[in-house]
Amino acid sequence: MSREKYTYQVKQKAQELGFMYCGISKADFLEEEAPRLERWLNQNMHGQMQYMENHFDKRLDPRLLVDGAKTVVSLLLNYYPEKEAQQPEEDTYKISKYAYGTDYHFVIKDKLKELLNYINEEIGEVGGRCFVDSAPVLDKAWAKKSGLGWVGKNSNLITPQVGSFYFIAELIIDLELEPDGPIKDYCGSCTRCIDACPTNAIVEPYVVDGSKCISYFTIELKDQLPQEMQGKFGNWVFGCDICQDVCPWNRFSKPHNEPAFLAHPQLTHMKTNDWQDLTQEVFSQLFRKSAVKRTGYKGLLRNIQFVQSTSSEDK
């Protein structure tokens, strides 16, 4: 009885903190994921993301991350902006919607700490750790296991009621809670994401070659951008939302209500020329707390120039 009660309390508190959904799964070895991850790494689909090779065992078993772990609490936080708050389609360079506002690592980490504190105060002393995309945790696998959605053909987690524009985070704790079960895959025969990807990064349904993804090129790759990708980025200079934008399930996306995720007012009014004339000062002002800082001013300029040179050739 107490297990059910604690589960209810945790989910209620998660909702109060602004999380869209909360799912529970038993902290076990991810048997299904092990061969898939190994194959993906062996085929070098992680490109220069060497960190993906580290801590292979920990990625598959949360009990190696948290002593005595019994439960993985998966949480979704919406970041979908209102239509009026999105960048225009024409005459601008685009950044992924997730990077419009304050870096999600900070926003979510604070909420997770609050949730963990609540568990310790209301339920009892619990050992655990907060995870936001910065440790060897397979977020989507755990969210799928806890019934928050299914992993789509574009390898994003998709939730029937809201689509896929959200962040995934976890609490791994040594408290036993009532686990949820997975849900069905509803991609059906749809191939919109595969057909729309300009770099053919979705090499087969449910398999994304990370080293071919626009997000990889514009964020992770520190070298020169490959010439064979010239003309394939459209107007994306940080990240890419194409496979999510075309997904039919994202017609159900609802605007977030997290003030920290609101874009700098100047961002949504920037034209192509403004991006091309971007100074270090304006960059720092626009992206002071944003995830765009990850690529840095020089990295963003490199991306802009790469896309700009393509546009010039087209003319």
Structure description:
The protein has 315 residues and is α+β, with helices and mostly antiparallel strands. The protein has two domains: 2-80 and 103-173, NADH Oxidase (3-Layer(aba) Sandwich); 192-255 and 263-314, no CATH class. The protein has eleven helices and ten strands. The strands form four sheets. It has a four-stranded antiparallel sheet with strand order 1-2-7-4, with helices on both faces. A two-stranded parallel sheet has the order 3-10. Strands 5-6 form a two-stranded antiparallel sheet. Helix 1 (2-16) packs antiparallel against helix 4. The mean pLDDT is 95. Catalyzes the conversion of epoxyqueuosine (oQ) to queuosine (Q), which is a hypermodified base found in the wobble positions of tRNA(Asp), tRNA(Asn), tRNA(His) and tRNA(Tyr).
